């Protein structure tokens, strides 16, 4: 058995082991909170105006309104993900949609733009998490809020296409939410985006 065959078998063994126990494998996952640089607007050509100030540096940490470029597990799988708005507390979409006693809804509006060469197909809420200042993490929950339409549970985007919608979380009333995270491939992609909320 030559060296390259041993390497291929070893890699196959690791992949098989990871498939059996996802939590036991560290595949080099990263959390990125560096936003993409925003496009600068051209200076006005009108007379008598001062020249535009130098373009400000990209913020170090992504916040609401910022976009993070993420990669998925497959070649050509890429998204630009923007946290557009946050509503805290969020109101249920109807009189029947209410949080459990002692809890509240938090809504996060995401915009997804397929910047890759492959089609994107996923349930975005599976890859979204909210965390509070104490480090407690919360998964998304099903439910519509009055702020606007929910993100579809089955998003399919061809290259260049986009999706917009709210993902809802249910958190304890006393929790002070501090970050929201988003990962492709239902959160199993190696790269996760993180936005600071407070």
From TrEMBL:
Gene3D superfamilies: 2.60.40.1240. Pfam families: DUF4352. The keyword NADP does not apply. The keyword Signal applies. PROSITE patterns: PROKAR_LIPOPROTEIN. Residues 1-24 form the signal peptide. Residues 78-177 form the DUF4352 domain. Keywords: Signal. It comes from the Bacteria. Residues 28-59 are annotated as: Disordered. This is DUF4352 domain-containing protein. The lineage of its organism: Bacteria, Bacillati, Actinomycetota, Actinomycetes, Kitasatosporales.
């Amino acid at each position: 058995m030559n060296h390259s065959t041993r390497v291929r078998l070893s890699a196959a063994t690791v992949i098989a082991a990871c498939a059996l126990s996802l939590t036991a494998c560290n595949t080099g996952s990263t959390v990125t909170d560096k936003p993409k640089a925003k496009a600068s607007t051209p200076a006005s050509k009108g007379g008598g105006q001062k020249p535009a100030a130098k373009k400000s540096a990209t913020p170090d940490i992504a916040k609401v309104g910022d976009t993070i470029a993420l990669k998925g597990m497959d070649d050509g799988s890429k998204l630009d993900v923007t946290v557009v708005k946050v509503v805290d507390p969020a109101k249920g979409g109807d009189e029947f949609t209410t949080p459990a006693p002692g809890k509240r809804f938090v809504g996060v509006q995401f915009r997804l733009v397929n910047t890759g060469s492959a089609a994107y197909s996923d349930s975005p809420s599976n890859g979204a998490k909210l965390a509070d200042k104490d480090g407690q993490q919360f998964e998304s929950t099903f439910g519509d809020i009055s702020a606007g339409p929910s993100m579809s549970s089955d998003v399919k985007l061809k290259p260049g296409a986009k999706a917009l919608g709210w993902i809802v979380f249910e958190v304890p009333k006393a929790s002070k939410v501090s970050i929201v995270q988003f990962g492709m491939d239902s959160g199993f992609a190696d790269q996760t985006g993180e936005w600071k909320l407070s």
